[in-house]
Predict the 3D structure of the following.
Amino acid sequence: MPDRHREVKPKYTSERNIPGAFEGETVTRRRMMGLSVQAAGLATVAAFTLPALGFAIGPLFSREPFDWQPVGPPSDFPTDTYVVKIVTLVQGIGEAGKSIAYMRKRDPAIDTEPEDQYNKFVALSSRCMHLGCPVRYSAPAERFICPCHGGVYDFRGVPTGGPPVRPLDRFYTRLNPATGLVELGPRYSVNSELHRFSPRDPGEPLDGIGQYLYPKRFSTSVLPNS
Ligand code: FES
């Protein structure tokens, strides 16, 4: 029910006996000034924060481009040890964008994860999954060793000692029928059962709740439709 005792304010400032009011004016000049100052303040804050925000979160939604990189003929790759191949991880920045991949031919006797067109050749990243130091393959021990904090990985890149939280990342590989060369694609991460996940950073586990605590980012490379 409407409140009959409530006083209805006149619409026009002149009817409210406000000194200096103009005829037909509905908002006082004091209030108008206040609203203008607030609007100017908001515009100034937006002018500073929106570009910074865009700069900060924009890269999260961009897709990293990648090229399939030829690394040699299939005969280059044995099944019982690794060969070193140089890969370009970031285009256009010269040597700083390059890294090492440890590669070999898939051996069904030990590579028990499901086979598909992208893992007929195994390519392991040399980046330790503790804090990112470069690991080194020791052929006599058939182990990858990290010199920084003693991380040890077995022949398949699965951690067997030290602080690394997940197996070494991998790269998609394929045999290009047009050139007859093995090619390296984008990096991906794996959990302890070698299931594929989009790339994560070192120190981010992918087993159990870890895969939800460290979800994939939009800024990772995607496989082309090939
Ligand atoms: S960075 Fe490799 S064990 Fe710490």
Residues 128, 130-131, 133, 146, 148-149, 151, 162-164 surround FE2/S2 (inorganic) cluster (CB under 6 Å).
